Amino acid sequence: MIGIEQQGFIVPDPSRSSRKINWRSRASCRGTIVLSLNSRQQVVVYESLLELMCILLISSRGDLADVWDQPEPIRFTLPDGSHHEHTFDYRVTLTDGLRYAVAIKPIHHVEKYDFDLKLGYICAALPDAFADEVILMSEADFTRAQALNAQRYYEFTKKPDTDADDHIVRVAYEQHEPTVLEDLIAKSRLGGRGFRAGFRAIIEGKLKPLSHGKIGLQTMVSSEVPI
C-alpha cells in the first residue's frame, strides 16, 4: 500500500492487527509506532514495552520490508489433544523475501510456562505460506544499551539528512586511524547534525564501533567498512 499525501504529509499505512487492542492497561505499556519501511511508512501496534523495544531493534537492521502486527492466529494442538490458538506479535518480512514469525515474551514467562516447548507445537502447525522461520525474543536477547541505541536510532531517522550522512562517512575515511565520534564530528564541522549522522552510520554499518555499549561522543569508530 502506498501512503496517501494530505497537505504535504504522507499518511502512513494503517495497522493490520487482526485483533482489537485494549488500550487501557495498568500492567503494561501499549501504543502505536510509525515505522519507515523502504519508501513507505506503516503504523504498528505494541502491547508492552518489551514489544516496543523488540520491534525497534528489528527495524534498526536496515533490511526490513514489511511488518504485520498481531497477524491472524495460528491454530495448534497439544499432545493431550486440546486445541488452542496463538497470535504472534509480529510477522516481519526482510528485503530478501524471508518471513519471520516473532513471538515476544518476558524471560520469566518463558521459563515458568515452558513457552519455548509450547512454541514447538505452534511451529509444527505453522502454514508454509505464513513464515519461513519462527523467532522467540525476550529481554535476555539484548542489552539495555542495545535497546537505547535502537530507540535513539529510530528518533534520528525521523528526519533524514543524506548530505550529513555522506559527509561524516567521507570525513571518517580521511582519517588514518580510529577516532572517537566527538573528534570526527569536530572535523566534519556538522555540529549536532554530525552526531546524528555518525550515530546512523554506526547502526547502518557504514562505520565500525570498536567498543560495545551505548553509542556516545566517546565511542571509538573505524572506517574499515568499505564505501
TrEMBL record:
Designated name of the protein: TnsA endonuclease N-terminal domain-containing protein
